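Revision sheet: C-alpha cells.
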Amino acid sequence: MPVDHKEKAFESAIEHHLVTCAGYVKAEQGWFHQERALDPPQFLSFIQESQPKTWERLRKLLAERTEETLLDDLAKAMDTRGSLDVLRHGFKCYGEPIKAAYFRPATRMNPDDLALYQKNRLTVIRQLLFKATSSQALDLTLCLNGIPVVTAELKNPMTGQDVQSAMYSFMSQIIPFQDADLEKLYAFVRLLVPRLPKRGIGPAVVLEDEVALRFYRLQQTSEGSIALAAGERGTVRLNAGASE
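Predicted:
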C-alpha cells in the first residue's frame, strides 16, 4: 500500500493521535473568535463546569451580558498580560477571580484538586482562519480551555522543505509583509536548495551557474510592488508556479 506523504495526511495523523491517545477533542475553526483570539464555547463551558458558583454570581449580576462581559475581560487580560500569565494566574471579572486553567497537583492527596485539573479542556483545530481579512490558515492549533497555546506549520521534507521553510511560512502569515529584499532572498533559496548536493557528497556548486531568479509573483497583502532584475541564465520553475 502506498504511503501518503502529503502535508494533509501528516496533519490528519497528528490530529488522530491527539484525539485517540492524548485526551484532546476536535474543535471546529468556525467556533474560533478571530478578534478575541480564543474559542468561546470551550472557555465558557470550562468556567461553568469548574467554577459554577462564580458563574452563578456573575449571571445574577450581569444576566444576558455574562458571556460577552466574561469573554471581553479575558481578551483584555490576554492583551495586556499575555496568554501564559492569564493561564497561570487567572483574571478578574467584576471583582470575581476567574481561573483560566488548573494545573496538575503535586500529589494526589487532595481529590478535589485532581478533579479540577481533569476539567481542563484540550482541543485541536485544523486549518484555523485566524484573521477576518485573510484566507491564510494555521495547519494545527492546540488550545487549553479555548485559549491557543501551540500552533504548528507542517512541512514535508520529501519535497525539499525543512524547519526553516516552516518557520518562514508561519511568520509570513502572522506578520504583515514589508521586506521585499527578504522575500526575494526566500524565493531564491527555495530555488537553490533542491539543486544543492547532499552534505558531503559531490563537488561544490557554482551558484550563479545553477539558479537564476528572473521574476517573482506575489499575492498582494499590502500596498507596494516587488521588482526583480532579470537573471543571467536559464529559467527554473517552482512547483507552486509562483516563481521562475
